[in-house]
Amino acid sequence: ADSPTPSVSNLGPRGLGALAAWLSEGSVPVIAHDAPLTELPPDAGVVVVAAPAAAEIRDEEVQALKAFVEAGGTLVYLVPRGAHQSALNSWLKVWPGPVAPLTKEEGLEDVGGSTVNVTFAGGLLWGARQLRLSADRTLSVQDERALAVTSHGAVWWLPSGRGEIWLSAGADLAQNAR
Questions:
Q1: How far apart are CA 43 and CA 34, in angstroms?
Q2: Is residue 164 helix, strand or coil?
Q3: Percentage helix, strand, coil, to 5, in the chain?
Q4: In the Cβ-directed half-sphere of 75, how many Cα atoms lie within 13 Å?
Q5: pLDDT tens digits, one per residue of 41-58
Q6: Distance CA 167, CA 75 (A)
Q7: Among 16, 43, 46, 139, whose Cα sits 20 to 30 Å from the Cα of 28?
Q8: pLDDT value of residue 1
Q9: Is 35 helix (H, G, I), strand (E, B) or coil?
Q10: What does the DSSP assignment read for 55-103?
């Protein structure tokens, strides 16, 4: 049965199981971290926080993520649309943005989707030209260092210390259905 929880163990349309399998096949270790974010594995290079809605991320966890990124790690934060993560959103200066326009793509059955153009194809988006996501709210990032890397503010990049932060609204971009 499909679950709305975007986790690496969810193989339904809203899960991240296909992404986890793809990364694993490419020799990228994937760990479902079920402990507090203050207990990140010391060898972690990338942390994905996928639309957290079940619990509020605490201030000490935000500080741990900040230290992780500033030390050279990469944070991918898929900002939940329905739940507000006060401490994390405050640190990253993230707010709801405009709604991405609904676009129909020939050959895709994703009737509620939007295609956005990649305007800065570097880092995690190296080689990407377009991304498919839900035709829903995007993001507004109020940090002057932040760079919108797609049209309509769907994905943002933010340098922090020796690391980087990638931001997108919802878990759409990582879901099995996309």
A1: 16
A2: strand
A3: 20, 30, 50
A4: 30
A5: 988 899 999 888 888 999
A6: 8
A7: 139
A8: 56
A9: coil
A10: SPPPHHHHHHHHHHHHTT-EEEEEE-SSS--HHHHHHHTEEEEEEPPP-
